[in-house]
Amino acid sequence: MTSTDITGEGEPRYVRLHIELVAEITDETALKAAALEQVKHDDYMDDDERAQAVEAIELDPSGSLAHFIDPLQLLGDVPGVELAQATWESAHTEFDPENEDWELYDTDAGSGDGATEE
Description:
With 118 residues, the chain is mostly helical. The chain has four helices and no strands.
């Protein structure tokens, strides 16, 4: 069965991509400074959004990473695809690559290759 069979020919088909990244912050000071610069020069933020972003960066510099995530860059120039909506957040997590509980792919959620069909 193809996605065309499910939605009908010619109808838009939406795909939700779940991407999980675990990043190690190796220099919190550098990340915080870069995020503050990013926010300072963001032409799409109004003054209230900018103030909230600066406050959030000051309170929890690990949230600074979110200011560098650009969903449009993830899709790049993929032919026939247009970004419809995107949300993302950053949060502290415990990570131990030696721990067997940390699976790169959740075998219950997909085929094990990171690709799932909705």
